[in-house]
Design a protein that fits this description.
alpha+beta; glycosidase; eight-stranded antiparallel sheet; hydrolase activity, acting on glycosyl bonds; 2 domains; 6 helices; hydrolase
Length: 276
């Protein structure tokens, strides 16, 4: 087994090292990272890691890897049209096995600020066009896509507009130079890796976990094997829920209470989840 692992590492390393603006040191650190892995349900794995070897920073990363061959019909969105609630409460109300926070929303009045459709019902229309919101998560009972092409996904029963797009067709997407993209924050993202859906949170705004900029986040998803990936709402909204875990199921360290604990959830307007 050690010889096989070493051989695969040798094959992967040249590919990892050319992902820009990453460094060879970071790509090697990611390949060598030891993950704590737990099976949550059939076709649902939870991987977590604390590291000080990525991007010259402390990072706490949680990943849910969902086998769509086994869970496509269980994938769902929940969206509040004009209000907000904790990710954990929305997940429990939906009988979710796992969940993450979704797209951007109105902090004052609630409701998504970008287009969202749930079970063929439009919950919110886009309030104003944003350079940030250029990617769609779209799925039904048969398939899941992440795309920038709105004309190709209209037939799906569930659609969430967010972004920006991080990886498309196995290549890094171009990211506009601005503070949102370039500064480190807590992050939530979603990607597709072969027949797996990848949900990821990166904690931030703490010495224990400093967060990532979107260039770093894109590298992380690319190294993990995602062929397409998009950013979701991050910052104080970043939250990951697993039904079997303590702290109301919240396994990351949300930053909205300015404490390093599991209690700092922000009320949000939509979540992505997998049902029991």
């Amino acid at each position: 087994m050690k010889n096989i692992t070493a051989f695969l590492f040798t094959l992967l390393l040249p590919l990892l090292a050319i992902s820009q603006p990453s460094t060879e040191k970071d790509s090697i650190a990611f390949v060598q990272q030891q993950w704590q892995t737990n099976k949550i349900a059939r076709g649902v794995l939870w991987k977590s890691a604390k590291t000080s070897n990525l991007f010259n920073s402390n990072q706490i990363i949680n990943i849910l890897e969902i086998d769509l061959k086994k869970n496509q019909k269980k994938l769902a969105l929940k969206a509040l049209p004009q209000s907000r609630e904790l990710t954990s409460k929305l997940a429990k109300e939906s009988n979710a096995t796992v969940a993450i926070n979704g797209g951007f929303f109105d902090m004052k009045n609630g409701g998504a600020v970008d287009f969202i459709k749930v079970d063929n019902q439009i919950v919110n229309h886009t309030r104003s066009k944003s350079v940030r919101a250029n990617a769609y998560l779209a799925f039904d009972k048969q398939s899941t896509e992440i795309s920038t092409d709105s004309s190709s996904i209209g037939h799906f029963s569930n659609i969430m507009l967010a972004g920006p797009m991080l990886i498309s067709n196995n290549s890094h997407s171009t990211l506009t130079k601005n503070a949102f993209n370039d500064n480190r924050h807590p992050r939530t993202a979603i990607g597709i890796k072969s027949n797996k859906l990848v949900l990821i949170t990166v904690d931030g705004r703490r010495n224990e976990s400093q967060g990532m900029n979107l260039h770093e986040l894109a590298n992380l998803l690319k190294w993990y094997g995602c062929s397409t990936a998009m950013n979701l709402d991050g910052g104080g909204s970043t939250a990951m829920y697993i039904h079997s875990e303590p702290h109301n199921g919240i396994v990351n360290y949300p930053s909205d209470n300015n404490k390093f604990d599991h209690a700092g959830e922000r009320k949000v307007s939509n979540i992505i989840y997998v049902t029991n």
